[in-house]
Amino acid sequence: MCKVPHTELATTKKDFTTVCCFCNKVLTAHGEWTIPATPLHLDSSDTLSHTFCPDCVKKHYPFAVSEG
Ligand SMILES: [Zn+2]
After folding, report:
1. Full-model pTM
2. Rounded to the nearest whole angstrom, what is the distance from the C-alpha of residue 12 to the centroid of ligand 1?
3. Is the model's pLDDT at 13 over the cut of 60?
4. CA nearest 48: which of 7, 58, 32, 38?
């Protein structure tokens, strides 16, 4: 349903967009997750880094979150 995150590529590129696979929110330069005003061009996967936002990690992968 979503592509494998290009983690290794992402670390070498600064002009990429980090997008959540589940809710399609994007990570802003301020470290905040927000819904983009305009739809992302998913075809341009070169500039997209698919991952999960904190909310979706908790929602879909609760076992991966340490509750302390
Ligand atoms: Zn999300």
Report:
1. 0.60
2. 23
3. no
4. 7
